């Protein structure tokens, strides 16, 4: 699902600076409207970003992704 959100907290990190969704400044209603219109007017781009977000969440923020990161740290300690 395409995402439009304000750049607060870790939203910019999750959306990879806007690569995985529309990221707008906080407290900027006009930018939020533009972000929503961008998704509606460019559905292919929005769908591509949504797919990137899905892949990013699975690899970076899921349980499996977290376990893999931890294992990589342990693997690197033996070097």
UniProtKB/TrEMBL annotation:
The lineage of its organism: Bacteria, Pseudomonadati, Bacteroidota, Bacteroidia, Marinilabiliales. This is Glycosyltransferase. It comes from the Bacteria. It comes from Geofilum rubicundum JCM 15548.
